[in-house]
Each structure stands twice: as structure tokens, then as C-alpha cells.
Amino acid sequence: MIYIGFLAELLLNISQLFMVLILYRFIVGKYKVHYLIEDILISLLFGIVGLVLDDSYLILFLFMFLIKEAVENHSLKFNLEKAITMVSVLIVQEFIYFCAMYVSRLIVSFVFKPVNLNELGNHDVVLVLTTNVIDIITSFILIHLINDQKNKIDELFYKIENFNVRKQIFILILALFLSYQFIFGISNFQKVTAKIQLSIILTFTLFTALVIYQVILFLKTYTMRQENIDEKKRNAQLNEYLISVEQQYDELRKFKHDYKNMLLSLGSLVENDNKDQFKNYYQDLVNQDIVSTELKGGLIAQTDKIMNDPLRGLIIQKYFSAQNKSIQLELEVSDDQFKIDHDRIPIIRIIGILLDNAIEYTVDTDNKQITCAFVKTQNTIEISVENIVDEGFGLSRMNEFGYTTKGTNHGNGLTNIRNIIQQHDNLFFEKSLNKNKLVMTLLITEE
């Protein structure tokens, strides 16, 4: 055991927690300049607490973080996605810090050549500064790697949310974090040497990595299985849809075949100036099924304009979901080749939530029509979902956490959208209400 002084320990605690906050804010996409002062104050406060609680101050920090999230959500429940991110960052930062401390100890020992650990402790400030430098360099390398893998990280969170295993994942990584704290606490209490402590930490980290790998492998396997099931379902629905369109086309062809005879009949009535019979005959034509039937083949033509397969599949899937509930979903696409080049996973998540909300609300209304529009300008993409709402619809209350018009156990859709928007600087969300028409719009700007 190396005993370091009061000032060195305070500096170590502050820098460690400050790097935790930087990593966390970078991952959730909320690192702005005004957060810098807040992070410094939080690090200073808990750094002082760490002088009393030792490494356990991180447990207190996590507990206060979860309370803060619950208060901001106006609920006893906190955001599991943010909680998973914070606990993961704490685990990674603790491992980086421990390895940095061990490497800095080797460097200081090589430079100053101390006779024993007590003499090494005399260089505690140099030891801490070296540890901080290694920690900062390693953390920024990690930030660069995270930035390169941002889409894969978003995809992983999407799978966790889609399979509804966020609670299980949170419990798993929380147990890993507490296990790390237990190992550090017991090692310090028993005055275990650094080499033995390093061996224990590396062994436990290897075990942790294997567990995480198994979880990711399970999610990938389950995803592939679910995608195959969904693809078969979409193919069956699409086949049914194409059969319906083909039947309507046959009816239209038959109508076209008889069109000439109809015109001849009308012509003879005009020549004979028989207005009453002309009106009756005209009304009979209007009442024909082929004339009054609305051809639905337009949706296929519109979806063909969408160049992103997952997005096109989502629209077709939601179309059939709406059709099964007697709801008409209309699609409008501005460009012949509409393509989204970045942030596709969060965009698909948001569109899915908006369409689900519109479908579930429209089921109980008289006007069963939803319009989904894709509009692309030079630097902006607008994706909007429009549906009719009842009188007295509370647009202002939609900002409240858990507010829903769909009954109990819903109401988290808009909260999830807000969380996704906060993590991406190029995504914006607008909502408007005009003459009972509710329009929810996702704006995508160039990064």
C-alpha cells in the first residue's frame, strides 16, 4: 500500500470524477460549454467527500445521480438508458484509473528509485499528476474510439430498448460496478499489494468482458432471429398487398375495356337530347364499384422512392398495422430518391414511435386517416406525421413526463423521443396543432 497525502488524494478524486462526467456527457451528446463549470463543482464536492469515504464516494455519486434523474422525470423512475451509460462509464473509468495508477507507480519508481513504499509515498504529487496525465490521454483515446463506433453504440441501445431488457442490463452492470467497489474496498482494508490487486482486477475484468461479450452475442442472435420473423411477416403482408393491387388492376382493365361502349351510349343519349335518361345513366356509372373504389397502389410507388431499406420496411409494416385497425395511412415523399445518409437508427426509432402513437390514438376517433410526409430540402430533412385529434387535446401537456392520451402504461414514447433528440445535435422535434390537426415533425439538419 502506498499512502498519499491529503492534497494528492483530493486531486486524484477530483480528476477521476471529472473524467467520468466528460465521458458520460460525450456519450449522451450533452457536453456544452456551460456544463464545464457544473462538472468542476460536482467533481470538487464529491472529491472532498472521497477524502472521508475513500473509493465508496463513487457509490454515493451514482446514488445522487439516479435521484437527480428521477426528480427531472417527475417520477420515482429514472431513465434506464442514462443510468446504464453512467454505470458503464464509472466501471470503465475505474479500470482506466487503476491501470494508470499502476503504470505511474512504475514510472515514478524508475525515475526516483525509492528504497521502499514509504519513500515512494514521498513523491505522491508526482505520482498523482502522472496518473492524471495517463488517465486523460487514455480517456480521450476512448472518446475517439466511441465517436468512430457511435452508430454501433446507438444500434446496441436500440436493441436493448426494442427487446425491453434495459432493466436486466442495468442490474447486470450495476452488480459489476458494486463488485469492483467491493474488490477495491477489501484490497485497501487488507492492505493487499499492488501486484496482487492488479491480478485480481485483471481477472475480474476478463470475466466481465466475457459476460458482456455473451450479452452482445445474445442480442445479435436474437436480433437476427427476430429480423427473420419480421421479414417473413412483411413479405406475407406485401404479397397480400400486391394481390390486392393486382385485383384492382384487373378490375380497372375490365372497366377500360367497357369504356368505349359507355361513351357510345352516352353519345346516343346526347344526340337524342334525352336529358332525363342521360342523368340516370350517368348516375349509374358513378355508382359503379370500379369508379368509387380508391386504388391503393400509390403506397407502393411512394415507398419505392425511399432508398433506406429499414425505413421502407418500417413504413410498410406500420401501413399494415394501420390497415388491420381500419386506419388509412397515406405516404407523401418529395424526392424520387429519398435517402438518409446518417443517424438512421435514431431516426427510425423516432418515426416508429410517432406512427405508433398516431395509430393508437386514431383507433378511437371517427376520422381514421394518418399522413406521413418526407420532405427534403438542400440542407434539411423534414419527416412529419399528421392525424386528427379531438377537441380539447392537451398539446401543452405533452411536454410532461408520462403524459399520454392512450391510457395507462403508455406515455413514454415522447419521453424516449426527447432523450434521443438530446443525444444528437442535428435532430430537432416540433409539434403543432391547427384546427384539430396534430402534426409531429422530426427535423434533420446537416452535421
Automatic annotation (TrEMBL):
<feature type="domain" description="Sensor histidine kinase NatK-like C-terminal">
    <location>
        <begin position="346"/>
        <end position="444"/>
    </location>
</feature>
<dbReference type="InterPro" id="IPR036890">
    <property type="entry name" value="HATPase_C_sf"/>
</dbReference>
<feature type="transmembrane region" description="Helical">
    <location>
        <begin position="7"/>
        <end position="28"/>
    </location>
</feature>
<feature type="transmembrane region" description="Helical">
    <location>
        <begin position="168"/>
        <end position="186"/>
    </location>
</feature>
<feature type="transmembrane region" description="Helical">
    <location>
        <begin position="40"/>
        <end position="63"/>
    </location>
</feature>
<feature type="transmembrane region" description="Helical">
    <location>
        <begin position="198"/>
        <end position="219"/>
    </location>
</feature>
<dbReference type="Pfam" id="PF14501">
    <property type="entry name" value="HATPase_c_5"/>
</dbReference>
<keyword id="KW-0808">Transferase</keyword>
<keyword id="KW-1133">Transmembrane helix</keyword>
<feature type="transmembrane region" description="Helical">
    <location>
        <begin position="125"/>
        <end position="147"/>
    </location>
</feature>
<keyword id="KW-0472">Membrane</keyword>
<dbReference type="InterPro" id="IPR032834">
    <property type="entry name" value="NatK-like_C"/>
</dbReference>
<protein>
    <submittedName>
        <fullName>Two-component sensor histidine kinase</fullName>
    </submittedName>
</protein>
<dbReference type="GO" id="GO:0042802">
    <property type="term" value="F:identical protein binding"/>
</dbReference>
<feature type="transmembrane region" description="Helical">
    <location>
        <begin position="83"/>
        <end position="105"/>
    </location>
</feature>
<keyword id="KW-0812">Transmembrane</keyword>
<keyword id="KW-0418">Kinase</keyword>
<dbReference type="GO" id="GO:0016301">
    <property type="term" value="F:kinase activity"/>
</dbReference>
